[in-house]
Amino acid sequence: xxxxxxxxxxxxxxxxxxxxxxxxxxxxxxxxxxxxxxxxxxxxxxxxxxxxxxxxxxxxxxxxxxxxxxxxxxxxxxxxxxxxxxxxxxxxxxxxxxxxxxxxxxxxxxxxxxxxxxxxxxxxxxxxxxxxxxxxxxxxxxxxxxxxxxxxxxxxxxxxxxxxxxxxxxxxx
Length: 173
Known about the structure:
The protein has helices at residues 17-28, 37-40, 48-55, 74-83, 125-128, 130-138, 157-171, and strands at 4-8, 32-36, 60-66, 101-107, 142-149. The protein is α/β, with parallel strands linked by helices. It has a 5-stranded parallel sheet with strand order 2-1-3-4-5, sandwiched between helices. The longest helix has 15 residues, at 157-171.
């Protein structure tokens, strides 16, 4: 199995059973390294050099977060701003994201139909996280899948386990 770094950002994890289920899965498996940004950087002072060095040690990445006010959590946005280095775009500089698989897992309390052109918010999740998608594309990462868990706060334990199993099967493809 590929050595996987999970970059996880949820400012209110204690209120998210869906995210906790996946976090517990990552912690129990040796091929996954979980980095909870809100746990690691409660003061929002990111050690960018250390993070860049860490990225080089992994074969693939999972970026997991909830939609908060129609975007990524602020600490994740800051992490990307601080860690992603424009020098990686130069030919003679190692780009730790180039060619690496990236899986994005997004949870939201909203209904799927609300996140559509004709829905309540008139924007899709892909549009709301487009900054992340563009950043990963510029740095030549391979976005393998974007998993969206709608109404995550209303899922039963059984539905959460089914969502987790579905995501695990995507990782194993």
